[in-house]
């Protein structure tokens, strides 16, 4: 059987969905890894087919068993974060070790992961140091939260996905570009949440006293000279599942400007690579705290890399495109 993945994608692009799916399903039945991967991705996202994470995992398993390297890395991520099944960190570690035997990317992930002090479930085995900078709202400094290699890893993962940053439009609840925020950013979604990123998200959850499922996908931001994020709140107008806490991680040094400023607190934090900053965003009654307004001041020289994780009141669906 002759099959070309580009033909199926062209049919889908032209709106000939049934024809595209028929080609993919037939090729998948014959063990074509490209067809299996495409169907798995569509089943994960709900694009052109019903969203079905269990089916996606089954398709991925078939692709990996045939030898699809990218499929193996995706399967490892989904195994760890529980997409399509219960989260299973030990199994994800086993799959990574298996992949590392033949793939240099997996081997690099394993090496970095082996340096981390982790519990059997992937959570941190040690408590991170913290220093209170302000009491109301609570602003906490976490020195050396990430190692240089960990910083480089998440910058590399996010750097492949960068696009102009957006903000949530309070009128529509949708993401949109705005002059208030001029950086580039990328969210590391669950399909790309490799075990290093997952372990870092678990570290953030432990440091913030929350469950990992409450965090939005880790977002990487890059600020070039002149770029900034003007004073703003991280809360979302009208959101039923509100952002309660923000964790910022500075991924590098060697730039000028780019401080994190809290204008109503008379507090400015100078970034240092590997350090993190955590602050609360709500008042005790659940209303957004106006004093949590903050800004990323313009970068004067060099490039600033930052990772952000916004934490919600309750668990979220990381696959949902809704801002709420």
TrEMBL record:
<dbReference type="InterPro" id="IPR005123">
    <property type="entry name" value="Oxoglu/Fe-dep_dioxygenase_dom"/>
</dbReference>
<dbReference type="Pfam" id="PF13640">
    <property type="entry name" value="2OG-FeII_Oxy_3"/>
</dbReference>
<keyword id="KW-0560">Oxidoreductase</keyword>
<keyword id="KW-0847">Vitamin C</keyword>
<keyword id="KW-0256">Endoplasmic reticulum</keyword>
<dbReference type="InterPro" id="IPR044862">
    <property type="entry name" value="Pro_4_hyd_alph_FE2OG_OXY"/>
</dbReference>
<dbReference type="InterPro" id="IPR006597">
    <property type="entry name" value="Sel1-like"/>
</dbReference>
<keyword id="KW-0325">Glycoprotein</keyword>
<keyword id="KW-0408">Iron</keyword>
<dbReference type="GO" id="GO:0005506">
    <property type="term" value="F:iron ion binding"/>
</dbReference>
<dbReference type="GO" id="GO:0031418">
    <property type="term" value="F:L-ascorbic acid binding"/>
</dbReference>
<dbReference type="InterPro" id="IPR045054">
    <property type="entry name" value="P4HA-like"/>
</dbReference>
<dbReference type="GO" id="GO:0051213">
    <property type="term" value="F:dioxygenase activity"/>
</dbReference>
<keyword id="KW-0479">Metal-binding</keyword>
<protein>
    <submittedName>
        <fullName>Proline hydroxylase</fullName>
    </submittedName>
</protein>
<dbReference type="GO" id="GO:0016705">
    <property type="term" value="F:oxidoreductase activity, acting on paired donors, with incorporation or reduction of molecular oxygen"/>
</dbReference>
<feature type="domain" description="Fe2OG dioxygenase">
    <location>
        <begin position="214"/>
        <end position="318"/>
    </location>
</feature>
<dbReference type="InterPro" id="IPR011990">
    <property type="entry name" value="TPR-like_helical_dom_sf"/>
</dbReference>
<dbReference type="InterPro" id="IPR006620">
    <property type="entry name" value="Pro_4_hyd_alph"/>
</dbReference>
<keyword id="KW-0223">Dioxygenase</keyword>
């Amino acid at each position: 059987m002759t099959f070309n993945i580009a033909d199926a994608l062209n049919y889908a692009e032209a709106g000939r969905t049934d024809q595209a799916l028929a080609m993919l399903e037939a090729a998948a039945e014959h063990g074509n890894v490209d067809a299996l991967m495409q169907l798995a991705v569509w089943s994960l996202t709900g694009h052109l087919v019903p969203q079905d994470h269990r089916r996606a995992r089954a398709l991925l398993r078939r692709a990996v068993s045939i030898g699809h390297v990218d499929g193996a890395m995706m399967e490892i991520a989904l195994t760890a974060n529980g997409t399509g099944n219960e989260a299973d960190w030990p199994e994800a570690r086993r799959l990574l070790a298996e992949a590392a035997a033949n793939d240099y990317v997996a081997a690099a992930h394993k090496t970095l992961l082996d340096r981390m002090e982790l519990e059997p479930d992937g959570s941190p085995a040690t408590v991170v140091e913290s220093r209170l900078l302000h009491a109301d709202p609570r602003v906490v400094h976490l020195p050396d939260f990430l190692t240089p290699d960990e910083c480089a890893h998440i910058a590399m993962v996010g750097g492949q996905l960068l696009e102009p940053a957006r903000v949530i439009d309070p009128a529509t609840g949708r993401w949109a570009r705005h002059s208030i925020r001029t950086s580039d950013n990328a969210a590391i979604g669950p399909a790309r949440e490799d075990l290093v990123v997952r372990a870092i998200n678990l570290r953030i959850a432990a440091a913030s006293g929350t469950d990992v499922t409450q965090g939005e996908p880790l977002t990487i931001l890059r600020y070039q000279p002149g770029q900034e994020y003007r004073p703003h709140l991280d809360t979302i107008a009208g959101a039923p599942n509100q952002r309660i806490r923000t964790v910022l991680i500075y991924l590098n040094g060697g730039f000028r400007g780019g401080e994190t400023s809290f204008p109503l607190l008379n507090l400015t934090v100078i970034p240092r690579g590997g350090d993190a900053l955590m602050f609360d965003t709500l008042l005790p009654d659940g209303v957004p705290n106006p004093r949590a307004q903050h800004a990323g001041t313009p970068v004067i020289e060099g490039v600033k890399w930052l990772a952000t994780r916004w934490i919600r009141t309750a668990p979220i669906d990381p696959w949902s495109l809704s801002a709420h």
